[in-house]
Structure formats: C-alpha cells, structure tokens
Write a structure and sequence with these properties.
The chain is α+β, with helices and mostly antiparallel strands. It has three domains: 105 residues, PAS domain (Beta-Lactamase, 2-Layer Sandwich); 75 residues, Helix Hairpins, CATH 1.10.287; 143 residues, 2-Layer Sandwich (Heat Shock Protein 90), CATH 3.30.565. It is built from twelve helices and twelve strands. α11 packs antiparallel against α12. It holds the Pfam family HATPase_c. GO terms for molecular function: ATP binding; phosphorelay sensor kinase activity. This is histidine kinase. Its EC number is 2.7.13.3. It comes from Pelagicoccus albus.
Length: 389
C-alpha cells in the first residue's frame, strides 16, 4: 500500500525550488500551525510529555511541566528519572537500560513541586514507518482528589453495590451448603450402622470427599467476603517470599496441570515489610490466578523481588496474551473483565489491599507477549502513609 503524503511532506519535497518569499510564507504558516497545536495541548488538564527511550524529555505541555516541576528551558536535556525519583525502579529498569517497547500504567506519589498523586500512562510511538528512534507519549492525570477525598465517588458506589451483591450471593449459597452438610451427616450416621464391606468403605471415602468440597466452598465464600469488605490490615512483620511460597504451594497442582513453570528470584535483600498476612495471600493468589488464565498450557510465570532504599518491589511477569491498549485504563474497574467467566473483581481487590498497605500497583503489558504486574510496598522501617481506597 502506498503511503499517502502529508502536506508537509509535499512541501519539504520541493523546498529547494522555493524562492525567498515562498520560504518566508512557509515559515510563517508552520509557525502558526505550531502555535495552534501548542495552544490546544496547553489547554489540556492532563500532562502530556514526549520522552525518548532514555527518559529524556523532548516535549511537555504546561500541565505536564507544572506537575513534575520542569522548566521550559530544560526540555531536551532533563531526564524523567531525575524529575520523578523511584519511577525507573517502578518500571523495573536498571541504570542505563532503555524504556521497553510496551504500554505501561502507574500510580505515583509526587512530592515536588507539590504533593500530589498522578496516574501515568506510557504509550510507545514512532514518527514514521522505518523510524528507529523510539519515543513514548507519557500521559499524566492528577488523581489527588480521587485518592484523598472522603466524599462518596462513583467508584465507592460500585464497591458498595458489590458488597450488597456479595452478601446476597453468600446468603443464597450458604443455605444449600448448610442443607448439604446436614444430609451428609445423616448419610454418615446411616453408613456407620451398616456392616463393614468394600462398598461401604468406598462410599465412606466418597462422603468424606463431599464433606471436604462443601467445607472448601464455604471457605471460598468467607474469603471472598473478607477480601472485598474494607478492613483494617492486621500489620505484622512479614517476609513476603515466605508468604508467596505458601500461596504457590496451594495453587501448585493447578500450575502443574497446566504445565506452567514458575521461577521466583530475589534480586537483593529479603522482601520484609509490615503487612497483613491473609490480605497479602489474597493479592498473590489473585495475581497468580490471573496469570494462569492469561497463559496457554506450557506458559511461564516469573516472580522477581527487589528493593531500593525505601520500597520493596514484587513483579509478576507472565507469558500470556497481554492487555490491549484500549483495556489498560479499565483493568481496576469493578466488574470489568475480558474473560468469559471472570468476575472483574480480582485486580480491584488487589488495588484496594495495596492502598490499605500504603502501596501501589503498576501494570506493563504488550499484546501477544505478556503482562508484568508490579507491587510496591514501603519497607518495614518506613512509615506507612495510608491511601484512601
């Protein structure tokens, strides 16, 4: 397919044939168009940056400069990692490593030039086909009011509706489970009065299996309700690698059935934090479950732990189908799911628990390649700052 030339391409193609008057007219027109576009970008409330793969800021509109404390004269030389400390670690980049060619989403706390929370999206783009110079559009949305406001929001209303739904579901499921438990007990009593035989022993084993499954379903309901109810974390000193081992042991048989390999790597020090053991188990279980469902049999899940001076980072990377760019901004919304049987609550619960621990969740994904979910938690010696969920 022949690429359609733009007006600028046509003009530049014959620029050598223009005389001084036409060149001056062209320069004036380009200046007007630039001023027009600058006006549009500068009226936007969202920050808009363009950075190269090394984090050098090549463009920033007024909102973007105001959010990160960038002077207009510093564009072209300022590095994003220096303006936003901790961002490079959050993205999992080593010193000197370039930005990856994938979409990313982050929630960050900025302390300069003023205290605020922002939601950040990285979107790769190229100016033209065959262009080897990688660039990224960085969108910054101020979500401070969303984080600290105590007024009811649409999100809190959705969560309230989920609580009502969960209570109804628990009630509807609880009644038949209680009935099953009673009838199983009656069957066991009747069976105990019969003479021992291979058939009765086999039936007794089957009844025990049924009792175990009923108890498991009852536990699932209780865990579900505990997960979505806002609860104060029971903070204790935890080694997250040990908590992770417990979760992997629980889901180990399912991972084996799917032929999924799991690699756990602790890059630096042990990931020790102040956290609620059960809530962190819920976070790990949800992320591993999502990764399993995103991968085909024979996939790979890699979990990496690393730390800097203030935070612990845990990255869950899968070799699954990835997330479409259009879906990325909605993955934390209640009921939003791309799976046929998904509830759309898993990542919402993860985000709520992480906020309750003063932590953040980040997502990097490339369609057809896989997804990396990054958990950021304060170190145990760092004072936890609660975020409104």
């Amino acid at each position: 397919m022949v690429k359609k030339e733009s007006y600028l391409d046509r003009v530049l193609g014959r620029i050598e044939t223009l005389d001084a008057t036409n060149l001056a007219n062209l320069a004036q027109k380009l200046a007007r168009e630039r001023s027009y576009l600058e006006t549009i970008f500068n009226t936007a409330l969202e920050g808009i940056l363009v950075v190269d793969e090394d984090g050098e800021v090549r463009y920033a509109n007024e909102s973007g400069r105001r959010m990160i404390g960038l002077k207009e004269s510093d564009m072209g030389s300022a590095i994003l990692w220096r303006l936003i400390p901790g961002l490079r670690d959050s993205l999992g980049l080593e010193e000197g490593e370039p930005l990856r060619d994938s979409i990313s989403s982050r929630e960050l706390e900025l302390t300069y030039p003023e205290q605020r929370y922002v939601r950040m999206y990285f979107l790769p783009f190229k100016e033209s086909e065959g262009d080897e110079d990688k660039q990224f559009v960085v969108m910054l949305s101020d979500i401070t009011s969303e984080k600290i406001s105590k007024e009811e929001t649409i999100e809190s209303e959705k969560i309230a509706s989920i609580l009502l739904l969960a209570a109804g579901v628990a009630h509807e499921l609880g009644n038949p489970l209680n009935s099953l438990t009673i009838h199983l007990q009656l069957m066991e009593r009747t069976l105990s009065k019969l003479e021992a035989s291979p058939s009765s022993e086999k039936l007794s084993n089957s009844l025990q299996v049924c009792r175990g499954e009923v108890d498991r379903l009852d536990g699932i309901i209780k865990n579900f309700l505990e997960a979505i109810r806002p609860q104060e974390p029971d903070f204790q000193i935890l080694d997250l690698s040990l908590v992770l081992e417990e979760v992997l042991e629980v889901v180990g048989s399912e991972l084996n059935d799917r032929g999924i390999t799991v690699e756990v790597e602790v890059v630096s020090e042990a990931p020790i934090v102040r956290a609620d053991r059960n809530q962190m188990k819920q976070v790990f279980f949800n992320l591993i479950k999502n990764a399993m469902e995103a991968m085909r049999p024979g996939g790979a899940l890699k979990i990496v732990s690393r730390a800097d001076e203030e935070k612990i980072y845990l990255r869950f990377g899968d070799s699954g189908s990835g997330i479409r760019q259009s879906e990325l901004s909605r993955v934390f919304q209640p009921y939003h799911t791309t799976k046929k049987t998904g509830s759309g609550l898993g990542l919402m619960i993860v985000q709520r628990i992480m906020r309750g621990h003063g932590g953040l969740v980040g997502i990097d994904s490339q369609e057809g390649v896989g997804t990396v979910v990054t958990l950021e938690l304060p170190k145990r010696n760092r004072k936890i700052r609660m975020l409104e969920g």
